[in-house]
Amino acid sequence: FVFLAYGLLGFIDDFMKVKYHNNNGLSLVTKFLIQMIIALVFFYLFMKGGGEPVLSISFLNIYINLGWMFGLFILFLLVGTTNAVNITDGLDGLAGGLSAIAFFAYGVISWNAGWLEGYQEIAIFCFLLVGAIIVFNTHPARIFMGDLGSLALGGALASVAIVSRHEISLAIIGGVFVVETLSSLIQIISIRYFNKKVFLK
After folding, report:
1. pTM for this one?
2. What is the pLDDT of residues 132-166, one digit of tens each?
3. Rounded to whole angstroms, how far apart are CA atoms 193 and 197?
């Protein structure tokens, strides 16, 4: 659901940019609100499907019941990851390669997760995405990623992390996305408020 919903949102944004021959597309507020709605629907489906509002750090054997705050955590994770992948693709086109690595990691995690309902299906979904990214993203790349691709991949990545109960590992597996987003944020703040570039290249 998240993969298709965020992909549809990205398609609408890209379509408006092409149709009106500008880079505006949907407004930031509109995109953010729709992303939040999709995240809330995912949270509802996750809980209805037997999910528990528990944040697990399995290698430390720590399990924290967040209750209703788990919904906010999912909201932050989905919207944050989606936009991080989108920003990464916009900066230097790295989203494809990094997403392939991340989905491969979660595919391996899901494949070996005997406690996870539907774990093999999740693993197959991850490996299919890896294959598709490799086929269409190797030189010469045949498809422009756009918001359609980056939003769909970002949303799917966060969803797989949540469903496989490896949310915290997303900060490591998707670490480059985090660094790219932080560097972009620092650059924007520096230029806007101090009229200087922190990163010159």
Report:
1. 0.84
2. 888 877 776 666 778 888 899 999 999 998 888 88
3. 11
